[in-house]
Design brief:
The chain is an all-alpha fold. It has one domain. Helix content is 36%, strand content 0%. It is built from two helices and no strands. The mean pLDDT is 75.
Length: 89
């Protein structure tokens, strides 16, 4: 909640979070933001326009959460958290 909304200017002196983005991931997120088509099939939303309203930071965090959930599921740890069993696989 300490991050500005999409399109808002960050507060003076604030630094954006380190999102560990490679150039390839940045291109993927940029394409996702422009087209609205998620690069992860698990994020099923009928209206691609849904995703275009989110900032790159929002999409990076959604991407990270889904990838973490998929990894936990594949390793058999999906029952270790409240949210992992709810993620579509």
């Amino acid at each position: 909640m300490d991050m500005p909304a999409a399109g808002d200017e960050p507060a003076k002196g604030s630094n954006p979070p380190d999102l560990l983005m490679s150039p390839e991931l940045q291109r993927t997120l940029d394409d996702w933001r422009i087209t609205g088509k998620p690069p992860i099939p698990e994020l099923r939303v009928d209206d691609f326009g849904y995703w275009t309203r989110f900032s790159t930071i929002d999409l990076r965090l959604a991407h990270h959460l889904v990838m973490l959930s998929k990894d936990m599921h594949q390793r058999g740890y999906s029952a270790c958290t409240v949210w992992a069993p709810k993620m579509p696989m």
